[in-house]
Amino acid sequence: MPVPPSRCRLLLCCVGNPLRGDDGVAAALARRLRRGAPTGALLRCTGDDPAGLIEDWARADALLCVDAAAPTGHPGRILRLDACAPRPRLLPSAVPPPGSSHGLGLGELLRVARALGRLPPRVVVYTVEAAELGLGQGLSPAVRAALPELERRVRGELPRLRQAGGSARRRRPRSMLQTGVERP
User: Which terminus of the chain, N or C, has fewer Cβ atoms within 10 Å?
Assistant: First the structure.
């Protein structure tokens, strides 16, 4: 996977393993986005080292993440979460199943990145509730049916984040750029 340059305005991060059923929803979205009109975002897909994403996130002015959410009875449901809200909702994730490629879930990674001062000033997460996360390729019918709507929402979000990322970069204090820690 390409590593983002020293800075990028907008990073689109697709997390998941296509060999684990609906966990491949973000990879399927990435394929759709690559076939369509350019997004203006640097696209990063990972299924094997989600913890390595934190350094990529630190180089971005704005971040949009896409991942599958643990099943809770509503397969295909799309949720949008603003991870930089004063009191962000918790991501609907579960402990990764045995043998999962996710040592940490996306929600845990976001909390670690925030604690380390490595989270961009603007972060939005889209999740699609999975029906099945077991071994096996292919998306469930409900998650496959949600892909066009997920693509529409992500494409609509990207211009807003790109604009917000540019203004966040200009407002960010120099000390925060250097250390990742905001001074009071």
Answer: C
- Cβ neighbourhood burial of 21 (10 Å; 0-12, 13-18, 19+): buried
55 CB contacts (<8 Å, ≥6 apart)? Answer: 118
Distance CA 17, CA 133 (A): 9
Give the CA distances from residue 124 to residues 20, 137, 160, in Å, rounded to whole numbers and listed in that order: 24, 27, 11
Structure tokens at 100: 């999962």
The residue to which tokens 């369509």 are assigned: 36
In a domain, 61, yes or no: yes
Distance CA 114, CA 110 (A): 6
- In 3D space, the residue among 133, 144, 130, 150 whose CA is nearest the CA of residue 64 turns out to be 150
In a domain, 2, yes or no: no
User: For 57-110, how does the pLDDT look when each residue is reduced to its tens digit (9 = 90+)?
Assistant: 998 999 999 999 988 999 999 999 998 777 666 555 444 444 444 467 788 888
Residue 156 domain boundaries: 8-179
d(CA 184, CA 103): 33
For residues 75 and 63, the answer to whether their CB atoms sit within 8 Å is no
